[in-house]
Each structure stands twice: as C-alpha cells, then as structure tokens.
Amino acid sequence: MRADVRMLGSLLGQVLRECGSLGLYEDVERLRIATIQAYSDPESDAFERAVAIADGFSVERADEVARAFTCYFHLVNLAEEHQRVRVLRERAGQPGREATYDTVANAFDKLREEVGEDEAYRRLQSLRFHPVFTAHPTEARRRAVSTSIRRLAGLLAEHDVATPGGSEQHRAERRMLEEIDTLWRTAPLRAEKPTPTDEVRTVMAVFDETLFTTIPHVYRRIDDNLRGHQSGLTEPVVPAFMRIGSWVGGDRDGNPFVTADLTREAAEIASDHVLRGLENALARIGRTLTLDAEDTPASLDLDALWLRLRDTDHEAAAEIAKRSPNEPHRRVMLMMSRQVAATRSGAGYTSAEELLTDLYTVQNSLLAAGSRRHAYGGVQHLIWQVQTYGFHLTELEVRQHSEVHARALAELDAGDQLSKQTEEVLDVFRAVADIQRRFGRRAAGRYVVSFTRSAEDLANVHRLAHYAFPNGNGPVLDVVPLFETFADLQAAPGILAETVQHPEVAARLKETGNRLEVMLGYSDSSKDVGPVAATLALYDAQAALGAWAKESGIELTLFHGRGGALGRGGGPANSAILAQPPYSVDGRFKLTEQGEVIFARYGEPVIAMRHIDQVAAATLLASSPSVEERTSAAAARFADIAATMDAASRERFFSLVHAEGFAPWFATVTPLEEIGMLALGSRPARRGLSVESLEDLRAIPWVFAWTQSRINLAGWFGLGTALAAVGDEKLLQQAYREWPLLHTMIDNVAMSLAKTDARLARQYLELGDRPDLSQIVLDELELTRDWVVRVTGGNELLESKPILQRAVKLRSPYVDALSLLQLRALQGLRNSATEQPVDDPELQRLLLLSVSGVAAGLQNTG
Q: How far, in Å, CA of 352 to CA of 402, rounded?
C-alpha cells in the first residue's frame, strides 16, 4: 500500500507541476513538510512555521493548495481501499485462513456448538440484515469526483497484474496520469444542491455497480463455507437474508423538497433499475443453458410454462425457438427475460412472486433432468436476487415529524380549510397505496414517526390514513416509532405497551405474527445528554425493550439510526452488535447507512461482501447463550460504574452546552454556518431556528462541524470526567476487558481522539472569544485522552490497534495542512469589528474547499 501511495502521490506531483500555476508544487511541498515535522516533533517551531506558510498564501494560492491536498486524500483513500481488497482476496485464497475471522460460517459453527445443529439451522433461516440507505448530507465529494476515482481503481488493478517495468504497466501509469489530471481539473464543489431525485439516482448507482450482483455472491460464499463440496449440488442452506431499505425520496422530516410525487418517482426509479437488472440477468443465465432436450428433457410443467409464455408474445417466441430449437430451458429463460422487460411498461409479470414461481419451475425441471449444478447454480442466484429485491429493489420508508401530524389533524378535526402542508401529508398515504398496488406491499409501508413521545403520536398516523381514505382501501402500514431524546428512550417501553393495544396496531400484529419494529435515534440522544450518557441510555432502552418484547410475545426488530461519525453511533458495526443486551438482536439487525458510509461499505464488491458477511455473522452470534450471558453478566457486574459514569458525564456535558451563549459560540468556533452553504444534500441543515438555539439544530451538522474543527467533541466529551469519577484504574481496566459495551465505547473514543489535534483545536476555539468555554473543552480533551490511555494500557492512543494507529498517523499531518487553510479562511470571515459575518466569496470558497478536503482526509465525518 505504501508503494501505491508513493506512486499515486508522485503522479499527482507531476500533474501539479504540469497543470498548476507557477510555484504551486513547491508551495504544497513547503506546507506538507512543515506539517509533517510539526506532527512528529511537537516541541519544534514547525507548527508556527506551518501556520505562517498557510497565512502567507494569497487566497488564490490557498485555494489551489487546498485542492491539491484534497486530491491527495482521494488518492490515499483509493490506495487504502485497494489494499483492503488485495488482503481480502489473498486471505480468501489461503485455505483455513478465513476460519480465524468473523464470518457467518464461523459464527454458525460456534452457534452449533452451543445450541445444537437443528436450532442453529433454524436461527440461520431466520437471519435478517437490513441496511437502510439515507440521503443525509455528509458525502462532501461530487459524484463526478467519485466516478473518476472508480476509474482510477480499475487502472490501479491493471497496474497490479502488469509485468513490472513492462509496456502494460507503463500504459496503466500513463492512463492514471490522465485520470489524475481529470481529477485535478474537475471542479471539486457542486454548483448547486442536489435535488431529492438526484439523491435517488446516486444511491441507484450503488445497486447498479455493486449490490445487485454482489449479494447473491455473498449467499453463495457462505453456502460454500457451510456445505463444502455439496454447495451447488444440493438445495442451499443460506436464505436470502438481506433486505435493502431506503429513505431517499421518502424521508420528509424537515425536508420540504420531498413530496408525495417525489416518493412515487423514487419507487418508479428503483423498480426500473431492478427490472432492468433482472431482465439482463435472466437473458445472461438463459443464454448459458444450452442444454439439449435429449440429455436434459423438459418437465411437463416447463412445457406448460413455455406455452403460456409463447402466448404472451408469439413473434418473440418464434425467434427464440428458431435460435434454440432443442433447448427448452434456454427458450423459457429468454422468454422470461422478455416478460420482465414488458413488466417495466405495465405488461408482463404482475408481481415478483409470479417470476419466482416460474424460476422454481425451471429449477425443478433441471433437477428432474439430473442437471443439479445448473439448478443450484445460476438459476439459484436469480432466485436469491428476486427474493432479496422483488420488483421494488428497495423497501421505501416514509418518515415525518410527529408535530407535523398533530398540526394536520388539528386542521382536519376542526374542518378548517386545509393548508398545503396538510394536503401534502394526506397525499403521502395515497402515494404509499399507489406504490403498494403497483410494486407489492414490500415496496413501501413502513412509516417512521420522528420524535415519538406518546402512543397518540403513532395512532395519529392511522387517523390520518383514514382521512386520506375515508372509504377504506388505504395502504397497509407498519408505523415505526423513533425514540430520539434521553427522556423518550426511557419512556419507550411504556409507550409501546400502550401502542400495541391500539386497534390498527393490534390487527397488524396479528397479520404479521406479532412482529414490531422500533427505531432508536443515536444522533439526537447524543446531542441531548452527551455521548457517554447517550450510549448508556441506548443500552438500557434496548434491554428494557427486549425484555418487554419477550414477556409480551412480540418479535421485536430494533432499527438503529446510526451514522458514520462516532458522535452518531458510528464505528465498527459488528463489535457494536455483539455488545447489545439480551433479546435485543435475536437474529435481526437493521440500521441506517448514509453519505460516505454507503460508498465506503458497499461501493466496492469485495469490501461489500466482507462487510455483509461480518455484520451478518455478528447478528447471528449476538443471541448465542455465551454472548448474551457475557453481556448481561457484565452489565449487572458493572452497573455501579455505569451509574457513576452516566451522572458525571451528563453533568459535565450540561456545564458546557447549557452555558449562556454556548450556541452562538459553537457557530463561531466551527464552520457550522458555512456547512449549510455546501451543496451536500437536498435537506436544510436546520429546521428553521437560529443558532441562538440548539434544540432543532440537526444532529448531523452538530457532529460534522465539531469534526471539521478537529475537536470531534461530539464523539468523546464527558468520558474523561466519567472515568475520573469512577477513579479506580484497575477496576476500569477489568471493566474494559470484560464489559463489551464499555470496551466498544472506549475503542471508538480512542479513534475519535486520535483524529483530534489540541493545537489546532485551540486555534479554532480562540475564534469565539470565550476563554471559559474553550478551557472546559481543552481540559476535558486532556482528561479524556489521559484516562483512555490508562484504561486501555500502553503509552498512547490506539496502541493495541497498530494498523489503525499507523493509518491515522500517516493521514494526520496532511489533514493538519487543510485545517490550517480552513482556519485562515474562518479567521478572515469572522474578523469584523461589527461581529457580523464577512461576505467574501473567495474566502467562502476556500473554506468550503477545505471542508471537502478534511472530510476526505478524516473519512468518518457524518
């Protein structure tokens, strides 16, 4: 990987010398060398020299330097991703190597030892992993930049396999130079915010390029590991355990641009993509089934299927029969491809279940003819794809704020003239009904209620549906409460106990076999009481909800509203799953995936396969007796520690965020206001309130702004005080070893702290002219760093994770350079005798460029 970084960095340097303005390359090198020295030798004067270099640039030169460092991070990220792919492929090629890693096959073996083979297979059959893609605005790079990087990835792979020094390697390097030239010349900032439709199409690119073909390969690889040589010869034991959800085009909480018509359009776009994918897959697999009827005769059911398909399009059937005169399975598959094509225009299949029935007919005919490998090979892959995606691709979910529902009902109950917003609220229910009629019930139906604070908030959704459909025939709805604040999390079990008595909810529970879904908000709870208290509150809420569900006979699915950043529940998902309380997972894991996380986890096929296998393994293992016993015993054993940490961390957090003038100070010492100017996503950064209040500031810019200022406060603040309040270092070290929740919390904080920089943080904090608040932050930063190192052992952060530590250390000096340029811009924009923001387009552009670059350098920013 280091060789790749050196090569790509050298190519970028060549492009800067060729294409940049006179002296650009030398200025980039001056700043780079100074920040590296400042990072490696904090006692030297290198940091002051780096500040002077950044401040000495003209705005135009600072703009170019920021672009150069941002390009460098895109290339470093590419090299790291390429190395991950390289390592995963090498590991897969070494027999027995994978057994030491967390895979579904390994988890199944452990589960079988504990609960027996029959029960292990039953749990495997009910396994469910359900990521939900959202359009949260944290992907700072343009799609044009992402596309260029993907092309570079292909060239880097070609360079890997070429003979060293040979013509193919030189050709790959020449084309990489051309692509880096393109990357350099491509405008790094979007000219305008994307529309919700743009966001829908961006997410569709992940399905087209990766997920549609990757997920059946995940199932196949797990089946290979479980069945060995029998895989592909017998019926697979691995179910289609993935379901993909989406809020893109459905999440209207605070986004006035998401309308009912847009929701309909999002469903149509998704369906079109999956139908095109199935059409091509059927044709591709069909063309391979050149099996002569003499050796592989058709079953009677297949013959009947051919006659039925022939009647739908005699002309196409005659053409296919002519090209495949004695190949019945090929003929049928090619006609099924035509039927799927017709489905896009409203003809063809009426449901995905019809297509599945036809695929089973083909599979059974092949089995009867003795062609087991074809039956359980390509045909099985198609079956898995249809089971996973249906004709809808993503299960589109609606989300709206409870107060919007209350206002709409007040108008409706009073018989007043309906506002545009209330008309729109009602039209959403009609849109969901339209989608269900056209694409099936799985295509839409979950309705998430933000800021659920009572059972009435959930009943209101059903009342609104009755208003939208006064004569009945409305959509089938699964209303999902979203508990976000500390108080709401504590009240959740009581609210649910009342909710399940509601007639519509009780009827739906009866239909689904007592299945209920509850969403937990990580972002707002962390902003509400701080990251430590929020983590503990979320654990307690899950434990209480899990116990309530078990006692009530409810099959509960907890939906985790996690983000990429540590202040939003980010960090390794598999370790977080294994730290959950008993009964809270039970073989089902659902979470939000957003922004840069979607592309980092699902944008590259090999990485996507590894991520899915890893998360599914943790989901399967989380409910094993040994894991449940470990988590519950540790929670009981260290309950006093938890109580002490909760109270101390909350008091410390409140001392900062409840201080007079905190909100405007926060907006001054971070690029909060400027983040709202970035064309990141269609949704506004705030719900209309000023920075005099944090109440309705969205949790995403709260986290994003602290990350940009290199303070990362949302990920760690209060933990140092919490650990110091416990005070017993040996006891805390024992808890770190034995208590999965604390272990995960501290490891995540260690990663967050490793990406902070006290010197840079001090420079940002000085922008606010509130030394009292600045000192609180800096004291807590030092205290938290000290206690995390003491609890984890060693002499510095991440000492037990050398690969991650090395990656952070390699990146940090380059991020420092961008932070200095950002500071230079912020100081100019904040420097006004009237204390009003300075309107300077050039400085604003420099700031936004640096925001994009820091996001690329730190990666998990949202």
A: 34
